[in-house]
Design a protein that fits this description.
The chain has one domain. Helix 1 packs across helix 2. The protein has 86 residues and is mainly alpha-helical. A hairpin with a 5-residue loop joins strand 1 and strand 2. It is globular.
Length: 86
Amino acid sequence: MRNGTMVAETTMESTVRIDLAQNEALVLFDFLSRFSHSDKLEIVDQAEHRVLWNLCCNLERVLTEPFLESYSSELKKARDEIRDTN
């Protein structure tokens, strides 16, 4: 973690690690918990917007897929791997 802000990095195992400051983690937890309970994504405070923006910026630094011509197929593959199977 740098200066109490979130940092993302890739590891040798094709995983992405994200470090969050305590306050960022708390704000993100509350945002995600509200969604989990209501199925409604709604930003109720500008801090939530900031944490999500920071997260996106940090992921842009470590992911290569968004910049590939094959991004759509890479995203579909990732979604297929993660999606629940019923």
